[in-house]
Amino acid sequence: MQAWRVHENGEPGEVMRLEEVDRPVPGDGQVLLKVRAANINFPDALLCRGQYQVRPPLPFTPGVEICGETGDGRRVLANPALPYGGFAEYVVADEAALLPAPDSLDDAEAAALHIGYQTGWFGLHRRARIQAGETLLVHAAAGGVGSAAVQLGRAAGARVIGVVGGPEKAAVARELGCDLVIDRRSENVVGAVKEATAGRGADVVYDPVGGEAYTQSTKCIAFEGRIVVVGFASGTIPAPALNHALVKNYAVLGLHWGLYARKDPAAVAGCHTELTRLAAEGAVTPLVSERVPLKDAADAVQRVADGRSTGRITVLPEGASR
Prior knowledge:
Layout: E1 2-6, H1 12-15, E2 16-20, E3 30-39, H2 42-49, E4 65-69, E5 75-78, E6 90-94, E7 99-100, H3 107-111, H4 115-127, E8 135-139, H5 144-155, E9 159-164, H6 167-176, E10 180-183, H7 189-196, E11 202-207, H8 212-219, E12 221-229, H9 242-248, E13 251-254, H10 257-263, H11 265-281, E14 288-293, H12 297-305, E15 312-316
Parallel strand pairs: 8-9, 8-11, 9-10, 11-12, 12-13, 14-15
Antiparallel strand pairs: 1-2, 3-4, 3-6, 3-15, 4-5, 5-7
Helix pairs in contact: 2-12, 4-5, 4-11, 10-11
């Protein structure tokens, strides 16, 4: 089969190589899946760079989430067992963790419903306990992670403010349904949020960016607001000033979805049931901006790494038309 492999750490476009390799062999409790669609996530770039919290042995195949097909023809969502990641024609995955692909979504959309939407749902509902009528501020609102949070926030009845970088991404955020879009390149984020909320600030902030985005959030967070930290796409990990959190009476909440998958798999299954319902109702639809063939995966991962994409880019192996 064909698979992209990384033999040394570095930028995805430089270190990913498309090779002919043997199909992986399932271990105990695992199953072989044919890849129908593999979604690109920012952690795939971090894996290539050797900067992710999980460091598979070299060589490895990146690709942390797929829509796959079982031997009996079922469509499922899975997190491939590294080092045999999803940018390949076949993967192995833990059978107990497989989730049914929603009938209302095609393969590319289904592949994108998994990690980003699970992270968004747990971040907004389990960690921040978002309530209808509250104001949600989403950084990188046109990206794969942010676009999921925008849709989930709207489904929860929140007023959603999206922060983006540039007019093209601003247009995408508006189409997603943001009530207000702020272009951080040309507008003052803090001032715009305060003006839009009559000085109160955002009740919940969803931050996959870190760096300056986190600093801005602390300056426009509401009384008893909650900042949900889900990643550091900026490359800068903030050092929160806890005295500031004390004085302004807000909470900083970390969210690592992978811990739920390990420590509370029943909650993950319950979340998937809820996401499947929302998808069937049309309340959420993953924003798949591009569907690229397997041969173009390295370039696509590099564009995600560089922040030059909107929504999700999904890799389709040869013969996968969905």
